[in-house]
Amino acid sequence: MLQKMLYLYSRRSSPVCQKKQDVKARLCWQGHVPFHTHHKDGVLICDDFLTGHCLLGEECQQHHTPRPYHWQLRQTLSRDWVNVSELGQKHLEALFCNPDKTDITLSCENAGGEEDLVQRQHSAFSKLDLNTLIPQNNWSYNKVRRLATTSNTDLNPHFLTKWNLYWQELGKWKLYKEPVVSQLEAAFEKGMWNQAFMLNGNLYNVDLKKYTQCNIKTNFTREVRRRPQLISDTELWPLIKTLPLEESKKQPVVSGPDPLKPSKRRLPPTWVPGHPRKEVFAQIPVLKSGVAFACIHSLFHSSLSESEAIILDIYQIQNMHQWTKYTIQKKFMSRGLSSAELSQLELPLFHGTTEEAVQSICKNNFDPRVSGQKHGSNYGQGTYFAKNASCSARYAIESKSGHSYMFLAMVLVGKSAVGKQSFRRPPPLEPDSPTSDLYNSCVDKVQQPQMFVIFDSCQCYPYFLIHYKKLTDTVNVF
Questions:
Q1: Residue 19: its pLDDT value, please?
Q2: Residue 343 included in any domain
Q3: Which of 133, 202, 320, 451 has its CA 20 to 30 A from that of 299?
Q4: Are 168 and 273 found together in one domain?
Q5: Could you say which DSSP state residue 88 is in?
Q6: Sequence-distant (≥ 6) Cβ neighbours of residue 243 within 8 angstroms
Q7: Do 265 and 139 reside in the same domain of the chain?
Q8: What element of type H or E holds 358?
């Protein structure tokens, strides 16, 4: 029997089954899910376990882990493999999947218990070469490993590990294309040392151990890199049975349809009845396996990649007073608009903020009167919103714990004009008329604007709060 390391990962607070005959129920049951990893290298993660169908339980000769990948550190003295924390798993995986990353830093500053005792006589930080996965200085861990599922499509139809192969040209990493990529990947899977291929009339040889590509005729050598394709939790949720479920019985959660689609309902389609109760507003967690989370996740990461940030939680803000003001303003601004104009009236836009300002915005809405105090007001003295999360991320100042916050707001942009720093309100539609109506908002540019400025708080509503972490090259492993 291979040496194992057993650990538990709670999905809900139900008791753990102890009897051997309960193994099947334990794996498929929505209670504690028992995991184990083997000490020996070269063992795959069990695909059946990830889908809740492994009947072998603790006797399975493959790894039982929460995801199709799993990171561990090997202690120098005991040679035991230690699991990286939940957030550390995602952080390390995102960096490893990025071909631009070569050296990163591992930190044990948050270690506790036995790990803290082991760490005290060693540095809390270590450089890690992502090509060798070997820590580079005197550290209490001498090796890092990434457990994974197979890349064989015949063996793993659900959680296949997909590898990307790159070659370097002028400092940039370029993907190999077919049929070369299939030839190289097959060679890697067979454990071969070299693989030759023809491309544009030239013969090349790839050293699969040194990760280099050599032109046989000119002897010119390039670096080669093999990294897995990043897979997010939103892709795993439909099939995987090992990720934690929200405590939906203890607190309400937001599920339901796409919350960003136009709706004629009085309240948003994902609004949870009965909340808030006594408070002015309620922050309702968005179910991570639901459609709403996937839609917001997709919009957020469309400009801010998963190699740059990890979403930790999303909350729907339910504030009846502010929502009522918003809907009244929307009805007023909709008067006399054509179908095409109505489709452009309202947009979901991002607003980066600080941890200290979150509760005030949830309660009192965005306040144009205090805008620009920290970040300037190039297009007017109002509240700023961005089409892309990557833009708003510049204004989402990290908290002391390294976390960031961003609102996804519903904004009535209406008719827009290019703003100026001196503007305290939008300019008139007809400059020569003293009774002219005003534009509804200001923008950075008329064609395909990226930044919107709102001068009236009833034209915006803090719909969702995104709690996330910006990814640096330093990973807290515990």
A1: 33
A2: yes
A3: 320
A4: no
A5: H
A6: 11, 66, 67, 233, 236, 237, 288
A7: no
A8: helix 358-364
Owning domain of residue 135: 4-148
In a domain, residue 237? The reply is: no
> How far apart are the C-alpha atoms of 323 and 268, rounded to whole Å?
9
| pLDDT number for residue 112 | 55
Residue found under tokens 């990290």: 398
DSSP state of 369: G
Kindly state whether residues 202 and 87 are assigned to the same domain: no
Assessment of whether the complete model's pTM goes beyond 0.90: no
* Cα-trace Rg, the chain: 26
**Hey, which residues does 148 pair with through a beta bridge?**
69
Structural tokens at position 222:
């390039």
Q: Are 318 and 457 in the same domain?
A: yes
Q: Are 42 and 28 in contact (CB under 8 A)?
A: no
Chunked mean pLDDT (size 10), the chain, 478 residues: 44 32 33 82 93 91 95 94 94 96 89 50 81 86 95 83 94 94 93 94 95 96 96 85 62 80 86 89 92 95 95 96 97 92 94 96 93 74 96 94 96 96 93 91 95 97 98 94
Amino acid present at 101: K
- The first and second tokens of residue 244, run together, are 């934690």
Q: Let me know if residue 239 belongs to a domain.
A: no
Question: What are the DSSP E strand ranges found in 220-331?
Answer: 221-228, 282-285, 309-318
Which residues are registered as beta bridge partners of 172?
169
Confidence at residue 253, expressed as pLDDT on a 0 to 100 scale: 79
